[in-house]
Amino acid sequence: MTPQLFNTLSTQVEPLIPADGKTLTLYACGPTVYDYGHIGNFRTFVHVDLLRRFLEQQGIAVKHVMNITDVDDKIIRNAAAQGVSIAEYTPRYERAFLEDLRALGCLDPVLMPHATENIPEMVALIQTLEKRGLAYRTEDGSWYFRIQGDPEYGKLSKKDLSGNTAGARVDVDEYEKDSASDFAMWKAAKPGEHAWDTVLGHGRPGWHIECSAMAMKFLGETLDLHAGGEDLMFPHHENEIAQSESATGKLFARHWMHVRFLLVEGRKMSKSEGNFFTLRDLLLRGYRASAIRFLLLSVPYRHQLNFTFDGLAESASAVERLRTFRQRVQHGPWPAGENADLLTQSNQAAHAFTAALSNDLNTAEARAAIFDLVRHANTAADHGQLLQGNVQPILNALTRFDQVFNVLEDRDTAIARGALAWAEQEGKLTEAATELQASLELSDADIESLVAQRSDAKKSRNFARADAIRNDLAAKGILLEDSKDGVRWKRK
Ligand code: AMP
Ligand code: ZN
């Protein structure tokens, strides 16, 4: 089944195929490391991760490159306000970004080039554009791209440029849709600003040239796929296309993927609106990264998703349901034999899962396919109809699901500990955070061992000891559930 993905450039759902038939080259715009990321930013990154995991599951290798923008207007402004250099300012936010990315179950990109380490390639690209008559220098020593020299400018965002005035210029990295203008590729340094001495003069690169230069340096002149959030389509990606294609004369990216926004009460989650949550904020409120990842993925990437705490709670209990189900199936004991209907349902679920993701990453249908199986299998188990021969096919379907969704294990322990240490220091420990803290003191193996001790205590009719263990665990947010299949535990 060839995966199909909507292509913003062609406006069609199209097969996603590596040009060399083996390895898909993917460039996904990375973070600007000027602050902690919010979960809106991560909606984009977890969908790119899901796509990559799915392609790999389908036997397509992915060379995933994500840039780290470690110089831009905001970084320069914030570093100056703190009286530190940009090199002193950015590492802590880059570290936090990577911690969050990993806690959210994302694979590390294969390469994470830094803008500040690829300045010569950016300079060379601007020089090429100058030779082709598409770059010009202004009096202050900045360099701009001449959009009127590029007849295809606007082809990604489908902008009508008829009202555009020749020579109108913009020098900020981010600007609005109605201001298609010549944009800065190189900015002359203002006094005291971080700058490089190059043949272009004393200055620094603009944001758009960074991505053009790094994408082509690490992945070649034509990429299979370029991805980012919907806000990057214009001007950022449009400008990347203009710069790259004007320099090489080749198509820059064959496929473009844009992930739509995470909203809060109908508005984009963003730093400037002040309506944002970081991963750390939510961990301190007692939510786990797995639940956040599942929430961000449950609505397909081409639909906006409205963030609510009810939605997050629903997502947490959905993850819990899957974990409980897996434990139940694993533990048994199940009668010998094989239930043919349930076997068919397991195979159908696995097939429907893959078909849904192949169809423009329909994560909602993929999720529904797995929950259908959970329902069928639980009903069968309740009636003694889940048989030994059904266990492996069910677990296989769950494994296939989790290779892509990656929510059945928690991976946020280290960062949750970090967030808690910070909250403690600041005197901001909430009740949920205290409970999380207590629960993190126990590893899964510790809990298993206590659960076994409690079962032994019960067997030897030492009920006081058994109850004491249960109560201690409950105080640490770990709930035990006795069922006819044995004892199950979960972190609240
Ligand atoms: P930034 O660090 O602001 O450059 O953003 C990093 C990535 O997050 C970009 O791909 C943005 O398009 C994306 N992004 C920012 N805000 C949101 C949001 N509310 N929902 C989804 N993606 C977002
Ligand atoms: Zn970019």
The unique ligands bound to this protein are: adenosine monophosphate, zinc ion
Summed over residues and divided by their number, the pLDDT gives a mean of 93
- CATH fold name of the largest domain, please? Rossmann fold
Shape: globular
Measured distance between first and last alpha carbons: 39 Å
CATH C-level category of the largest domain: Alpha Beta
Which regions are unreliable across 5 or more consecutive residues at pLDDT < 50? none
Computed structural class: alpha/beta
Strand proportion, as a percent range, falls in 15-25%
**Total domain count:** 3
Query: Using only CA atoms, what is the Rg?
Result: 26 Å
Largest sheet: 6 strands, mixed
CATH architecture of the largest domain: 3-Layer(aba) Sandwich
What is the H level of CATH, i.e. the homologous superfamily of the largest domain? HUPs
Number of helices: 17
How many runs of DSSP E, i.e. beta strands? 17
Q: Helix proportion of residues, in percent?
A: 40-55%
